[in-house]
Every structure is written in structure tokens, then in C-alpha cells.
Amino acid sequence: MTGPLHSSSGHNAAAGGGGKTIEEMYQKKTQLEHILLRPDTYIGSVEKHTQTLWVYEDGAMVNRSVTYVPGLYKIFDEILVNAADNKQRDPKMDALRVEIDVDGCSISVYNNGDGIPVEVHQEEGVYVPEMIFGHLLTSSNYNDNEKKTTGGRNGYGAKLTNIFSTEFVIETADGRRQKKYKQVFSENMGKKSEPQITKCKQGENWTRVTFKPDLAKFNMIHLEDDVVALMRKRVVDMAGTLGKTVKVELDGHRVPIKSFCDYVDLYMKSANCDRPDNFKKIYEQVNDRWEVCVSQSEGQFQQVSFVNRIATIRGGTHVDYVTNQIATHVMAFVNKKNKNANMKLHNVKSHLWVFVNALIDNPAFDSQTKETLTTRQGSFGSKCELSSDFLKKVEKSSVIDNVLSWADFKLSKELKKTDGSKKSRISGIPKLEDANEAGGKDSHKCTLILTEGDSAKALAMSGIAVVGRDYYGVFPLRGKLLNVREANHKQIMDNAEIQNIKQILGLQHGKQYDSTKGLRYGHLMIMTDQDHDGSHIKGLLINFIHSFWPSLLKVPSFLVEFITPIIKATRGQTTKSFYTLPEYEEWRNNLGASASSWTIKYYKGLGTSTAKEGRKYFEDITEHKKDFLWVDDQDGNHIELAFSKKRIADRKQWLTNFQPGTYIDQRDKHVKYSDFINKELILFSMADLQRSIPSMVDGLKPGQRKILFCSFKRNFVKEAKVAQFSGYVSEHSAYHHGEQSLAGTIIGMAQNFVGSNNINLMYPSGQFGTRAQGGKDAASPRYIFTKLSHITRSIFPKDDDILLNYLNEDGQSIEPTWYMPILPMVLVNGSEGIGTGWSTYIPNYNPRDILANLRRLLNGESTVPMHPWYRGFKGSIEKTVNTKVAGSTYTVTGIIEVLDNTTLRITELPIRRWTQDYKDYLESLAPDTKNKDKVPFIEVVENKNASNCVHKFSTVINAIPQLQLFYRMSHVKVIMKMFTFSSH
Description:
GO terms for molecular function: ATP binding; DNA binding; DNA topoisomerase type II (double strand cut, ATP-hydrolyzing) activity; metal ion binding. The chain has 30 helices and 39 strands. The chain is of the alpha+beta class. It folds into 6 domains: 49-254, 2-Layer Sandwich (Heat Shock Protein 90), CATH 3.30.565; 260-402, 2-Layer Sandwich (Ribosomal Protein S5, domain 2), CATH 3.30.230.10; 417-564 and 607-692, Rossmann fold; 565-602, 2-Layer Sandwich (Dna Ligase, domain 1); 693-843, Topoisomerase II, domain 5 (Alpha-Beta Complex), CATH 3.90.199; 891-983, 2-Layer Sandwich (Gyrase A, domain 2), CATH 3.30.1360.40. The protein is elongated.
């Protein structure tokens, strides 16, 4: 039998113990001894700390450096909070008095209201006051099922103050029992006097705690000024958080704060010292448990918060709860106001100063020092939902101005990272042909030629062979420049073209340029095609400079353009050059019948000119170079008119006032910016409208009309490759754009899957695209064939051809102004397009419904309203809105069936919700092997699709009982994206 183990000698040194005995190494302490030995666990550090804190001095809040001992501050706070807690126990409490006797090193805290029961606790055998203040781990707050909004909870509280005091006196009057109690503790709660029980009046209720901190334990010899200032600030806190029903006194004087709003004003007054613009607060008492105030902060988040009158100097979940509401609203508002801001919550929070006074059920903190609330939001016991009025006031406050200013600064700082500089050599910019003198002492003589693409660069390089490389550089643009006025910050930062131009010219963001001395080039020359798109590129470059460096446009001869003919007319040895189409058309119309004796060559782009012509242009460079001229602020106004989203209404009026035949007289050597906008760029805008918005007469856009014209001209009944036919159309209809674009239009006219054409005018022979990808999966034009559909000539009768008004271009008869189909094709196949100033969207309608209404019209009868209709679509289309302003809005719904409690079957998708995109969406709802935390909605996606039918899916759904999905089909349809909307 084995007995208890014994050390061979209690006095032997323990192995590795440095000579210490087992008894010396392993010791048992009483809880009181442990608290005194390890005070930081209970009251925080007992060493001096220096940090910047708010203190109360001379009637004002002051934010300054403070040296204090956190533990000493904490034992004072425990008594103060304990006294304030009585307000929750007895709402009749109306007095809180604090006296800090610096000379006597004594602190007294008094409160009226129900006192502590002066009665012996039957289980412990001691009076209740002694039990509360002199016995550890005693509390009235241990029942977690009872919701309390007091500060104490863990049974330490005031006992810690007793333990760290040389003297601790508790006095209380119990008016119900008519007993007054007094007891003195000393020597760190090591000694206590017998309680003195005397009589008091009926209804006399109060409690007073007087203590003398054991300063030696805090490495102090007297109550230092900084500590006293902090204590006084906490008394003022109580005045602000208890409200007007409690009179708070400090050292015999009433604290002049009657509400939380008054309390916040102390901080505002301090912050507004020596400021030209005062901080202003926005206050709301949300309910009887929450008071919230917000103001602006300078660059970092600030908070002043209280939970059950405890000062949570490091905030916590209650502050996060309130701040997130404010920051989320501000973030959305600012991002809407400045789309480039891209503000995040943490960006906004750094500009907020939030004040919170909250009552929380059974609050939990990160430590006994109670600096941070950790209670979860769902356990607060109440809600703090800020009103719309409060948030609207925030929208109009300096908080918004502050955040917007910071956003502008942040964006400007990021843009400055891409700044150029005046240096003689730069590298890393593909296709740049830099002038030899660029960035040098003669940089002001240098000209950078920006060309429209590589072919235009080749022409410019041919010309530079004449003028030399010393003062001319060339850089090709890749298509159209970004409209920076409406682009977001990321788009600008990611746009290589914009950054390259800044580097080449040496432009610096935000710099005011009165001359070009700080740039690598003294002149910027635009060399684009003379067509409408070339004018648009010029306009976009002007818009770019005006958006960031408007002063540069005012520098004489900085911005110039190099013009080349768009048309050359030749007869014998005579050649005439025309730089705009309206100019050429005016000349041709004046010639009348003799115009046919001239040979016309259309210069689609600069690439049409030969190298010889290029050299000739530069030999006569003064004839081809035109300076842009800034006259007044109207020039800037017109640039904004053309490119600002805010000026859409003005832009519509601008286009409405357009007069055909408008053009710039190229004999002038200067072009006013306003003339460029109103006489050249407007031609692009009109052309953009014509090719983007269909005719209401035949429902066709110009490209579609040219295709139909050439199909009729060719009697296109035998199949030909789309690529070949697009070449034919380009040749016979004076089509001046890319044949690839024309091929795309032909493919679109032949498509017949659900959601495309109700009547396809061209016949699709081959893979012309499917519903899977909305037609984007069509084969290459060189692999597929087409011809006129059999029905097309029935809709566009041949007998009508001689009645049409045919256009003429370069002496060539081309398509008519419009066709006159027997059915309004703009309704049959619908149409959508976005032009300058205007856009259109018309859904498809059933040709049979249209035909029936036409017959009604012919018979003098009233027409019947029609609903959108798409050939082959099996879902539903229902009208939801019909107003004069918004027009008609329809909800387009697919088909979804519930097979059982876990399975859905989808047999139809809404119009224009393409199958592949929808499959990708379903996959996003399925389990993610890379993200284990994701809660999947779908477990399995089973694909059962036919070739040109909508894919049929069987999906197994995770049960989500709280939504009761299968009892509310509307929820299922929303989650499964079974709706689209159509408006016209």
C-alpha cells in the first residue's frame, strides 16, 4: 500500500531553484495578499505613466500631457461609479458630492438616495455595509439573469479602494430602518473598527465613503496636481452623464453641467480655441438609454464614451456600434458626391469625433480597469438607431467638408506620384520618339506631336524627316483618350496613356502654368484624322488638359493642331483640298452637274496619305498648323458643356440648336476653343447620335441601313461569307468605318436566339451566337455565311424602292434616308443605343400584335395596348409602373419550380440574363473549397441543357428555416435572380 509522498527534507534546496527551498519557491497567498502583491491585475499599473489626456482645470476641459498612476485613478473611480450607480437603484437620487482634500490626502464621495441596508446578513453574520466594502467578492450584481445597468459587477469594486487605502470610512443612513452606520477600516483593509450604529430620521437615506489612498503603494508622497485634475474631470463626467436631475458638487461648488449636451460643449469650447471656424456638434438623444453626439476631428478618430457612467477611454463595442452607423452614411454620401473619393470606413472614421453616453445591460469589459467595453451588440439590452434627421444634419456639417477635402488631398497626392519632370531623357515609354532638345534649355521650342494611332505616327515621321528631330517628338495615341472629367480615380491612375503624356510633357498635378518653361515641350500638337472621330480625340485631349491644368490652355501657342485634307478633288492638274465634310459638300453643291468631272478621294485616316504627301505637309507646315486660342471663360464653359455629365440638359439644347452646314473656316490661323466645340466637335456629336439612335421610321441605324441597301442592290439570295459581304457593303455604300464593326452589325441582324430579334432580317448560316453568351459566342466572320431572310423583302417591298430618298456621297448613290417597312421594325426587334445627350431603349413586341393594331388604325379604330414579347420566351412579362415621366416599366420573370424541400428546377431565365453568366452566378452560391467560412446556398448545380434552349438546372438548396424560403417563393426568385426589368 502506497502512502502519501513526503519530501526527504523540507529544507533541502529544490533542483534548479537557485538555492531556494520548495517552500520558498511555491507559496500560497490569501486573496488580499495577492491583490497587494499583484495590483496591476486588479487596478492597473501602480507606476507613473505619462500620456495626453483630457483634464478639468479652471472650469474648462484641457487636453494635455499628464503624469499619473492608473491604479490610484482607478480606486477613486470605483467609489465614484459606485455612488453614481445608486441613481439606477433609486431614481430619486438628486445629489452627488465629491471633496478632494489635497493637503489632508483625503477623498470623500457622498450620494443621497436609498442607502445600504443596515442589517446583519444572516448567512455571513456581518452587517451588509461591512460585507459590501470589507469582504472580497461580495456584490449585488452576481445574478446574470437580472439585467442591470450599473457599473459594478465582479465583486471587487470599492473593496479595492479599501485595500489600497491607509484609512477607509463607510457611512450610510438607512431611512427605512432608521439606522445610521459608520465603520472605519485601516492598514489596507487589514484592520476594522466595530460598526457604530446610531439612529437616523425616517426617510433619511445617503451614503458617504471617505478614504485616504496609501500613496506609498503608488510611489507618491502627496496627491499630485495631474492626478487631482484627472479626478476632477471624472466628477465633471458624472455631471454630464447623470443629467439635470442630479446636482453634482465638487469641493463645495456645483459643477455647471446639467446635461450630456452641456458636457460635450466643454470639449467643443476647448477645440475651438484659436480656430477661425468653430467645430459644431450634432446631438441626438436616441432614447432613454442612448445619447450620441458627433463633430469633426482633425485627422484621427476621437471618442469620449461612457457605459453606465464608466469612462471607457478606449471605446469598445458601443462606440463601434454608433460610429459605424455614422461612418457608413458619410462614406456613401461622400462617394456619391465625389465618385473618385473611394472612401472606406476607416478613412471616414479618422474625421469623426464621437461622444456616446449609454446604459448597457450587465456590461463586460476587457479588464478590471474597464477601459474597453466588450459586450456584444445583441446583448446591449437596447438599440441605438440614429434618426434620418440626425444623419441629414451630418450631411450638412463640416464633417463632410473635412472628408471631401481629405479625399481631394489623397487623390492629389496619388496623382502626384505619376508626375513628370523637366529632364532631358526619359525611358520606358513604348513608341515614343523624343525630340533631341526636349527637357533641355531649348525645350520651349520643342513640339510634341500626338498622333491618332501608329499609321498616323508613320506619316508624322515622314514629315519629321523634313523639319528634323531636334525640336519635334512623336507619340501615338491608342484610340480615344479617357474622358477624365467623368472617370474615377482608379481609371485615371490605371490609364497608361494619361500617365505617359504626363511623363513626356513633364506635367505636374495641381501646378499652375503661366508658361511652358517648366515643361519638356513648349508646344503640344494634335495630329488626328479629319473625320468626326478625329475631332472627338482632339476634344478629349483638350478636356484632359482643361480638367487638370486649365491655365495651360491660356498659354499662347501651347496647344496646336495639324490639319490634313479629308477629301481631295482632282481634275487634270488641278487639286483642291477640303478639311471638313461640310466645306466639301458646299463646294460640290455649288458646282451642280459639273461636279461629276472631278475625281474624289476620301482620306479615311492619316494612313491614307502617302509618305510623299506627309513630307509635303511638313514642308508647308505653317499652312497645316493652327493654334488654339483662349478668349475668355466662355471657352472653359463650352468645354464643360461637351464633356461634363452635369451638363446633359445643356448638351441636349446645344445639339437641338445645331445648324446643318456648320464648319470651321480652315483659312483662319487660330481656332477659338469655343469655335472648336460649337463648329467641329458638334459634328461628331451629331454623327454619334445618327449612328447610335435608330430611326423611328424604319427602326434602323445607318450601318444596318447600309447592309440592307447593299443586300437589295445585290439581290442577296445566295449565301456569302460575312467577311466578304462586309467588304461589299463598305465598297458600295461609302462606309467609312472599320469592316470589323460592319461584320458585327451583320451578325447582329442575323441572330435569332431568345432575346435577340423577333424577325431577323439576315439569315444565319453557321454559328451566329447563342443565348449562352448573348451572341458573343458567334464564330469569326470569315467562317460563317449569310444572305437576306426570305421574309425581309416582304417587309420592305421592292415596289417602294423608287419612292425613297437616296443619299449621295462622293458622287455615289448610296442608301436612302430611311426605308418604309410595312411593319414598324423599331417595335418588332426593339432597339437600344447611347448617343451624345440622348439614349434609347425600346423592347421587342409581337409582330402579330403590331399587325392587329395596324389594321385597327386602317379601319379607324382605337389601338390596343401591347406588352413586350420575345420569340421563344416562356416566362412572364408584367407591367409594374406606368407614368408620364417614367413611361412603362415591366418585370420580366423566368420560370422556377420547387420540386421538393431541397430542389429547385429552373426552365427559363429572364430576357437578357444569359445562360453562362447565370451559371457563373449559381456557382458563386455553391460551396467554396478555398473559403471554408462561406455559408453556401446551393450544394449541387446539375446542368441539363439543350443546344439553343435555356439551360435547365437542378439545384440542391441548404435549408434556411428563418427565411422560410419554400413557403415564400418571392424570396427564392430574388435570391435566384429570376427578375429583370424593362422600361420604355
